[in-house]
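Thread: "does anyone have the structure for this chain?"

Original post by V.I.:
We have the sequence but no experimental structure in hand. Need at least a predicted one for the grant figures.
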Amino acid sequence: VRGPEGFRSPVEREAGFREAFADSGLALDESLIAEGNYRFDSGLEAGRELLDRKKRPSAIFASNDEMASGVLHAAYSFGLSVPDDLEVVGFDDTATASHVWPTLTTIHWPIEEMGRLAAMKLVSEFLGGSTDEFDLEQVVVNSHIVERVSAKLR
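Reply from O.Q.:
Generated one for you, tokens below.
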């Protein structure tokens, strides 16, 4: 379930999704890409759309945890068991991920570190200089998967 147009994050998340498919040698069925807008309701609608297919997907990746939570609700409305019938993975590792049931497997995004780096960049630009610590234009922050109940990753 992709995120809304006009933002960088859904483009990058979808690119990573597509890269993972390519790296695994799997063909991606484009009809399985559903539209979302980072809100619960769009995840619910996308989940229903995907799960109402004659051949249902066995897993759904949503571009954020809110939409993944909507997908969980859609799965239950179809009488599916997560993760036995359908695995669901989100992105962001928000509080929502640990508050829904089953708890959501998700990608942890280091929001605090990103905020710190953004503040450093703004302060540096405001002062008319740059930091010697690192080139803020080239900073890469690492994410990692947080395994919870909604997906069996092994």
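V.I.: this helps a lot. The first strand starts at residue 59 and ends at 61.
O.Q.: and The beta strands are 59-61, 87-92, 105-108, 144-146.
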